[in-house]
Protein: Rrf2 family transcriptional regulator
Amino acid sequence: MTKIKHTYPPNCKTFGLALQALVVMAKNPNRCPSGDIADYLCSEATLIRRIMAKLAQEHILEAREGRDGGYRLKLPPESITFADIFLALQVGESMCEGMLESTGDHPLGLQMHDVFSDMVTEMKQSMLDILKQHTIAELANGLMIKRD
Structure:
């Protein structure tokens, strides 16, 4: 079976890769190098480093550079919700941006922008309410991580 490497996914895929990377870290409490995480996810190490940098900025994980470097969860996996990751990566912003940008500065477009804006706010809140119910620990439980 040939592995397909994911190199530059849109934000929804970035969210999925981030969740999977955090599961790898939850299962391996020592520092995980980006190359190892990328291998597990069949992705590129540079992409993983970009995602991990955002999560480190939000204090979800800690990063260490150098030969003994890598990433480690800063918080227990039980306390990291999917909403934390969603917000750290600002996935919701980019998901709805296109919808708002589709309206123009003509009379109908301005009205639609107001309607879309209210709808986007409601959609984000509903999504966050659901994502707050799930944690990295919940996702990691029962998963066996093996190298091929």
Summary: The mean pLDDT is 83.
